[in-house]
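Archive maintenance. Older records in this collection stored only the sequence; we are now back-filling the structure field for every entry so that each record is complete. The fields below show one back-filled record exactly as it appears after the update. Entries are processed alphabetically, and Sodium:solute symporter family protein is next in the queue.

ARCHIVE ENTRY
Title: Sodium:solute symporter family protein
Organism field: Streptomyces spirodelae
Length field: 556
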Amino acid sequence: MLHLAEGLRLPTNGLDYTLLGIYFAVVLGIGFAARRSVKTSLDFFLSGRSLPAWITGLAFVAANLGATEILGMAANGAQYGVYTVHWYWIGAIPAMVFLGLVMMPFYYGSKVRSVPEFLLHRFGPSSHLLSSIIFAVSSVLIAGVNLYALALVLKALLGWELWISVVVAGFFVLAYITLGGLSSAIYTEVLQFFVILAALIPLTVVGLKRVGGWGGITDTLSGEKGGAFMTAWDGTGIGSANPLGANWLTIVLGLGFVMSFGYWTTNFAEVQRALSAKNLSAARRTPLIAAFPKIFIPAVVVIPGLIALVMEPTLGKTEKGLQYNDAIPVLMRDLLPNGVLGIAVTGLLAAFMAGMAANISSFNTVFTNDIYAAYLKKDRPDEHYVATARWVTVAGVLIGMGTAFIASEFSNIMNYLQTLFSFFNVPLFVVFIIGMFWKKTTPAAGFWGLLTGTVGAMVNYFWLYKQGVIDIPTDQGANFVSSIVAFAVGAVVMVAVTLFTKPKPAEELAGLVYGTRSPGEPEPLGEGDDAWYRKPALLGWGALILAAVCYVPFSF
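Back-filled structure field:
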């Protein structure tokens, strides 16, 4: 089992612990304050659909700014170099724009409380139950990743054993989610967003100064790893070797389309933030507002991974030495003075709690609404479901503690996360995208497309790749291929099954298929939506153009 490298302890003192204690007190205060606003299940699960776009937008990006971003993307930067920017500029921004412009009107307009509930309306109970189970499993697995990452930092900070760190961190997150539901998680995530930036920006600035700036990084790593290590596209021709182990086709198709759209458009941990917005306009703008800070996150996550590799060339070289996951803690130990170190530790803990809270809050929503209330205990009083959701939150955290030890087996947790996304999110996406744009798609097609897509991705990863049947150079390359397999298998099965089964009546598809409208009045957009910053199309195109511009300096 992988633990933090021996001797990697942070030189913290009383000032650092004081800053950390203040942050914990504020977070618990938010939980108690939010508890007073929770009167119904809608309040607990979706904040009563009352939050403004800027709050939900910052929460949207903060919910993803957990282990995936901090330890995972820094580890990716150290292992794969500048190729890591693909996860942002092609692997996030286009899908976030698509979610805001195309898919949010379907989600928000149908008044669903979860992503699986949309599948209930579109395909029926079989697809709904299967997707609910898949999402519940994936949520606690990903929550375990964040818990494991948080435990790594606590071990570096306090020297605690991994299991002690996992238990303490898990119960703290449990406290404020159980108290205030989604409102508590969202308002905490907004605070965490700024705390995270306050931690990562000084780390990046001091690190760049230590290694001689961007020129120093480029000279050192180009000499050691080759010139392609410091570019985004060089060496990605089909048949060419590169550190990522993927070519331009698998990057564009596997990451940029299938995996990216599969994650951002169907991951309820993200979509839930947009569904809590006060109206349709705010819901559409939520992922678009989040896209702009997302564009610049590589500057404070990927670059520190490169800096760590310059300062500690042994990263990832030996099984018992420093691992790629240690990149950020190494920089904190070596670069930051006390006080600033306390802010950095607080920022990291905030990031990991944000990621775990996002997955646990979405887990309690899906399990309570889409499994418990839909199939186990129907037509109970609203108070019964709120109480149940709190107990489900407890169960989710406890399961997440167990799954944290699965994540500990991976030297780069991003590899593990991307494997989970290819298994669970991509099959959901193919069912959504075909069902949303082809009204003849049948309920049976939705169920079998979801099931076979998931199985196809697992067969590719565990048999074709892990057993050496096909030669794929890296785990990330295998994840891209698994995503393509999941999409292709699911799509082919859906088309084939549709040709031999009966579709739902057209009147039942109103508002669920592109080109149709829900009965009744359209959702009001709210006053003042003629302002440029409230126009979703303008925000979306601005994010896409800015992401494309960012590629230019790193293209070749």
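Update note: The chain is about 70% helix and 0% strand. The domain at 14-30+44-408+531-554 is CATH 1.20.1730.10 (Sodium/glucose cotransporter).
Entry marked complete.
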